[in-house]
Specification:
alpha+beta, 7-stranded antiparallel beta sheet, 4-stranded antiparallel beta sheet, 11 strands, 28% strand, binds N-oxalylglycine, binds manganese (II) ion
Length: 213
């Protein structure tokens, strides 16, 4: 079926093209309203069910043997996702990301190969200090994709994502509110970022497209 046969598919294709342009330029992109309100509601319900089932664990820093839970660096809880799953709202979103991956590989030759991602709950009072999404010595993570799931987020709720957008000016940043339906994409190697203290529970689905190892 041609993408223009379905209005949603056409809107998605336009969003993917915009993201490709932004990644080729500044290297990061903010897409508001990436998901419909219905899809967001369904994602929140699915996340809530997983939380009730005890699927969220304290987040670690580093990987494998280096993995350490350091609540002074980050204090969220995460639920890793099966990237192959196409179940429910999470699966539908992962399918959209797969379409984005194909667009970016075609238009930018990014060589994005596979995906890893998790839901993340930041309880009130939590944060994630300034960091890069690539692990030292393992530069496979290529594209970071963060989708926010929070309804009615208010400035007083804090929890902004601060992206250090200019490598030549280390203290220069842009801030993004974690408003439901906002998708943030950036080249993982290029941008340090941090999550400012959230005073209300903050839910996101964060993932990375990796190059082939
Ligand atoms: C991460 C991260 C940012 C956010 O999980 O690595 O930086 O806004 N998340 O949730
Ligand atoms: Mn990060």
């Amino acid at each position: 079926m041609n993408v223009t046969d379905r209005p949603q598919a056409a809107a998605d294709a336009a969003a993917y093209a915009r993201i490709a342009d932004a990644l080729a330029g500044p290297g990061w992109c903010l897409t508001g309203g990436f998901l419909s309100a219905a899809q967001l509601d369904a994602l929140r319900v699915q996340a809530d069910t997983l939380d009730r089932q005890g699927a969220f664990k304290p987040a670690g820093v580093g990987r494998a043997a280096d993995l350490a839970i350091r609540s002074t660096i980050r204090s969220d809880r995460v639920c890793w996702l099966d990237p192959e799953s196409r179940d429910g709202a999470i699966g539908a979103y992962l399918a959209q990301l797969e379409d984005l991956r194909q667009t970016l590989n075609r238009d930018l030759c990014l060589g994005l190969f596979n995906f890893e991602g998790h839901l993340a709950i930041y309880p009130p009072g939590s944060f994630y200090r300034r960091h890069l999404d690539q692990f030292r010595g393992v530069e496979l993570r290529t594209l970071t994709c963060i989708l926010y799931l929070n309804p009615d987020w208010q400035p007083a709720d804090g929890g902004l994502l601060r992206i250090y957008t200019d490598p030549d000016r280390p203290d220069h940043y842009e801030e993004v509110a974690p408003i439901g339906g906002t998708l943030v994409t950036f080249l993982s190697a290029s941008f340090e970022h941090e999550v400012m203290l959230a005073s209300r529970e903050r839910l996101s689905l964060t993932g990375w497209f990796k190059r082939r190892g």
